[in-house]
Amino acid sequence: MIRSGLVVSICAFFLVSFTSLQSQTTHNSGSLADTLDYPKSFGFGRPATDREIAVLDTDVRPDGKGLPAGSGKAAKGKLVYAAKCSGCHGVTGIEGPNDQLVVIKNPADPKVKARNKTIGNYWPYSTTVFDYIKRAMPFNQPGSLTDQEVYDLTAFLLHENGLIRAEEVIDAKTLPKVVMPARDFFVPDDRKDGPEVR
Amino acid sequence: MRDKKEDKSLITEKKISRRTLLGGAATAAVVLAQTASGKSFQAALTQSELLWIEDPTKVPGVPPGTLGTRSPFEKPVKAPSDISSRTPLQDLFGTITPSDLHFERNHNGVPAIDPAKYELVIHGMVKKPMVFNLADLKRFPSVSRIAFLECSGNYRGAADGKITPQQICGLTSQSEWTGVKLSTLFREVGVDPKSTWFLAEGGDAAVMTRSVPVQKGWEDAILAYAQNGEAIRPEQGYPVRLFLPGWEGNINVKWIRRIELSDQPYQTRQETSKYTEAVGGGKIRQFSFTIDARSIITYPSYPNRVEKGWIEIRGIAWSGRGKVVRVEVSTDAGKSWQPAALQDPVLDKAHTAFRYLWNWNGQPTEILSRTVDETGYTQPFLKDLLAARGGNMGYHFNPVTAWYIQGDGQVLFKAT
Questions:
Q1: Under 8 Å CB-to-CB from B114, ≥6 apart: which residues?
Q2: Which domains occur in chain B, in start order?
């Protein structure tokens, strides 16, 4: 008796597994109806305050939205760079050992390597420089730079890449307008479902 | 080969120690008899002592424990570099990657996040900016799906052929992911229908960000808090990660802490200076999210040495565009192709196991696999892929790979 009961429950287990597998497949295609319709709101979570959003929301868009007050200059950025960045990116932003930041203007320069993606020749948006330095650099002390330092470093790196003049001031208005030579190279994904290899 | 050698040295070690440790093992058994305490017995007998018990039917085994263990004879490991760690594809069976062998790619290490302090903020172009803690997220209707996750920078070759599946493409893994559909949260916060992109931001030391089309959020995005039946591993984004089925690994932002709805992409560093690829004509392809169809033979592979006779060729195939519908195997260097058997269940955007039974005649040859997905895409040869991309390699590189089998049975990688 006991044994046959066990067999029945094992069978039931497999039936359930099989059914849930079918549901899984159906759910993946998005057509499985839940047992009840979703309410308009579940009421879970709490409203976010403007203040707590502001603490996290440091991102900068290409149109400049998100850039803080202040401004930077290349000459001041040079000092910050020497103190906080050159250890990883090299004295002039070329030598590494980590990512090369500055484009080598003379292609005959023996330092030009195959792997030579830099801000000057590959980054399509100037605002990315500010956003990324502020959120993630320096690598060993991420998020430690002041907005002033980030503005100055941004100006320095844009200048070293030949994208702005030494005396140009970088701020929320001028940064989005810096012309990035690589912008025109970028195209959206042109691959599609189907046989074509692209 | 390598595995065999390791096993042999283990056995030698056991024989040497057995003579000296025999008394020790006997003592452990006495402890059990005297105290009748399973736990103290378990403590008395170390794993290495248990290993060389020649007849397990003559000694009581280890009593039930609080956590299962991998057999000490089995030692699959990831292959780490400074920035990533690769899944040992050649050591796995079936299609689910054990969670501790899931590949990793981090941008400034794995953060330590206290789940009690975890919060996800959703704001921007929404009616109600909201904060959800982990318990909140778990209260919402849940969803599970089995799907692969692959880094788009997942192809390596080697001129000397001495390269394993793990080294070639070990930045792909598969799990059952469980979480809340992002669309559920989109409804909860009232996403503005005019929003087209959202920023996903991680709470790691890179505060990593990617822009994601809102459409994907409505379609099938998951905020996953579980992986293979338990809380997601720290390396995979504990306590919560974004999971976008079929899309390149990097955009599946781990340790997600913030989502901001917008009407344009943010052009973050990851989606501009990284994870973009030269495709010829001076063009750089951007926002190339979907993983193209791919396969790899995981057995036989380097460093195996095979013997003449029956060989079950095994591997995995997958596509970010849907289901795998066919895997073809060639055992004559691509002159002819035969369909491989696909192991059920074949799931959407998931690693699919294939196998092909082959009787090797001992002559040198090449074996290859290629996959066809439900959109009709056939995995290309390397030369065709290079031709389509102006001679460039880079992200989203999914060529057919060959294994050259020498007359002596040694298996070596060969590019196609």
A1: none
A2: 2-58 (no CATH), 89-275 (3.90.420.10), 294-415 (2.60.40.650)
State whether B201 and A128 contact (CB < 8 Å).
no
Pick the residue from chain A with its C-alpha nearest to B119. Answer: A45
Which residues in chain B are closer than 8 Å to A102, comparing Cβ atoms? none
Task: Give the pLDDT confidence of B307-353 residue by residue, as tens digits.
Answer: 999 999 999 999 999 999 999 999 999 999 999 999 999 999 999 99
Task: Say if residues B314 and B297 touch (Cβ distance below 8 Å).
Answer: yes
Concatenated DSSP letters for A54-114? HHH-----TT-TT--S-EE-HHHHHHHHHHHTHHHH-TTSSS-SS---S--S-TT-TT--S
pLDDT band at B45 (very low <50, low <70, confident <90, very high): low
Residue identified by tokens 């009407």 is B263
* Residue B139, Ramachandran bin (φ over 0: left; ψ between -120 and 50: alpha; else beta): alpha
Tokens encoding B196:
């087209």
Tens of pLDDT, residue by residue over A65-104, are 999 999 999 999 999 999 999 999 999 999 999 999 999 8
How many Å apart are CA B302 and CA B165, to the nearest integer?
A: 8
Would you say A157 and A101 are in contact if contact means Cβ atoms under 8 Å apart? yes
Task: Quote the minimal CA–CA distance from A153 to chain B in Å.
Answer: 16
Name the residue with tokens 């689910």. B96
- Average pLDDT estimate for A161-177: 98
C-alpha–C-alpha distance, residues A93 and B385, integer Å: 34
Q: How confident is the model at residue B121 (pLDDT cuts 50, 70, 90)?
A: very high
| pLDDT above 90 for B1 | no
Look at residues A112, A94, A38, A118 and name the one whose alpha carbon lies nearest to residue B143: A38
Nearest-angstrom CA–CA distance, B71 and B405: 31
Q: Which two tokens stand for residue A191?
A: 């691959």
Categorize the per-residue pLDDT at B27 as very low, low, confident or very high, splitting at 50, 70 and 90: very low
Whether the link from the prior residue into B300 is cis, omega within 30° of 0, is yes
Question: Which is more confident, B123 or A114?
Answer: B123
The yes-or-no verdict on residue A109 having pLDDT over 90 is no
| Sign of the torsion angle spanned by Cα atoms B318, B321, B326, B332 | negative
Rounded CA separation B153/B270 (Å):
13
The ipTM assigned to this model is: 0.87
The tokens for A81 are 């760079």
Judged by CB atoms within 8 Å, which residues 48-77 of A form the interface with B? 48, 52-53, 56-57, 59-63
Inter-chain Cβ pairs, chain A and chain B, closer than 8 A: 167
